[in-house]
């Protein structure tokens, strides 16, 4: 099993194999637009200073990024604690 995982890891980082065109996210930590990131960070600070709540409205895929960010900010196993 370990050899298969290693092989998949190598293919992912080499950008080979089926679906390789969708693996650009792997390089994102090195290649992201730092100016855009700073702009977003500044806007986030401004929103936090001016707003009590922030509402994201979207359908389908447009909501998935916001949902992932919200999930990331919750404590581990949050849903289990409220059920």
Automatic annotation (TrEMBL):
Gene3D superfamilies with a match to the protein in the record: Glucose-6-phosphate isomerase like protein, domain 1 (3.40.50.10490)
Signal peptide span: none
GO molecular function: carbohydrate derivative binding; glucose-6-phosphate isomerase activity
BP GO terms, sorted: gluconeogenesis; glycolytic process
Top-level taxon of origin: Bacteria
Protein name per its UniProtKB record: Glucose-6-phosphate isomerase
